[in-house]
Amino acid sequence: MQETDGFHGAKLALLTGDRLVSILRDKDPEIPYPDMWDLPGGGREGRESPEACVLRELKEELSLPLSEADLRWKRRYVSDLDGESTTWFFVAEVPELDINRIRLGAEGQAWRMWDVARFLRMSNVVPTMQTRLSDYLAEREVA
């Protein structure tokens, strides 16, 4: 089995300078982490690759088209929700991101740009997103 087989979803940290795009999850108590700030991404459809999954979700959730070439970092994680399923976390650094093109899709209550440092300190953020973004930032500092 290839490393990209059998995953369940993907998330993206979309950075522009020291700012990050985030989505406020719906208030629905039936979803994980309702009414918390999250990063774009979601579940896999069919046999799509992790890259195709995260890029499709970004387009659906925020109307932003990126390409695989924009994805600068990726890491596979075991889900914190069930301890078994695999998810992917990507980072794209887009210095010239035109935030005027962002349009919230059918999911989520709102979108917002946060200073990365603030996002990492906030208590109403999906905790795994803070941890995974921190993993990337730590590696970036070493490089």
The assigned CATH architecture is: Alpha-Beta Complex
CATH domain class: Alpha Beta
Biggest sheet descriptor: 7 strands, mixed
CATH superfamily: Nucleoside Triphosphate Pyrophosphohydrolase
Number of helices: 3
Helix content: 10-25%
Specify the structural class. alpha+beta
Q: Which radius of gyration do the C-alpha atoms yield?
A: 14 Å
- Look at the structure and give the mean pLDDT: 93
**Could you name the ranges where pLDDT drops below 50 across 5 or more consecutive residues?**
none
Give the topology, please.
Layout: E1 7-16, E2 19-24, E3 37-38, E4 41-43, H1 50-62, E5 71-78, E6 86-93, E7 110-115, H2 116-121, H3 127-142
Parallel strand pairs: 1-6
Antiparallel strand pairs: 1-2, 1-4, 2-3, 2-7, 5-6
Which labels suit this protein?
143 residues, alpha+beta, Nucleoside Triphosphate Pyrophosphohydrolase, 24% helix, globular
Explain how this protein is built.
The protein contains 3 helices and 7 strands, in the order E-E-E-E-H-E-E-E-H-H. Strand 1 and strand 2 form a beta hairpin. Strands 1, 2, 3, 4, 5, 6 and 7 form a 7-stranded mixed sheet that branches. The model has no long low-confidence stretch (mean pLDDT 93). The chain is globular, with a radius of gyration of 14 Å. With 143 residues, it is an alpha+beta fold.
